[in-house]
Amino acid sequence: AVERTLSIIKPDAVGKNVIGEIITRFEKTGLSVVAAKLVQLSDQVAGGFYAEHKERPFYKDLVAFMTSGPVLVQVLEGENAVALNRELMGATNPSEAAAGTIRADFAQTIDENAVHGSDSTTSAAREIGYFFAESELCERTR
Ligand code: CMP
Predict the structure, then answer these.
(1) How far is the CA of 50 from the centre of ligand 1 (A)?
(2) pTM
(3) Is 53 designated active site?
(4) Active-site hit among 116, 127, 128, 131
């Protein structure tokens, strides 16, 4: 089914100037960007986005990292978008990510792992709504 998923290109990857290379991977597999914005997240916005991890030991570092520089927040649309994006990203820990995945190629540590992607269509709906109004999502043109 055609799905939408939320993708975030994190501060480490934005800082490495590889936004284009990462988006190229999405586009080459048939995903299309239907919304995008480059934003500097506040503690409040980053903390709210990751609220489900609030009790985890890495929460504080995660929020500090996600607010350390701009991130590119995007909505990707296409057939099987949620799983396809997760396949492209690779495992959360770059040292366990399959060769050729975004995290294997652009990230070094589990804390600074280049990209975020929704883990289900339910999370995707919540995460997209967290960052975008329905009116900001564009029609796919291909
Ligand atoms: P992300 O998909 O953005 O969701 C939460 C983030 O927390 C995750 O990517 C990792 O970058 C970070 N993180 C740090 N330590 C862990 C851990 N032990 N398990 C899961 N995520 C972690």
Answers:
(1) 10
(2) 0.98
(3) no
(4) 116
3-state secondary structure the chain: CEEEEEEEECHHHHHCCCHHHHHHHHHHCCCEEEEEEEECCCHHHHHHHCHHHCCCCCHHHHHHHHCCCCEEEEEEEEECHHHHHHHHHCCCCHHHCCCCCHHHHHCCCCCCCCEEECCCHHHHHHHHHHHCCHHHCCCCCC
**Ligand 1: which of 41, 62, 66, 102 to mutate, judged by most atoms within 8 Å of the beta carbon?**
62
Give the pLDDT confidence of 102-140 residue by residue, as tens digits. 999 999 999 999 999 999 999 999 999 999 999 999 998
Position 73 pLDDT exceeds 80: yes
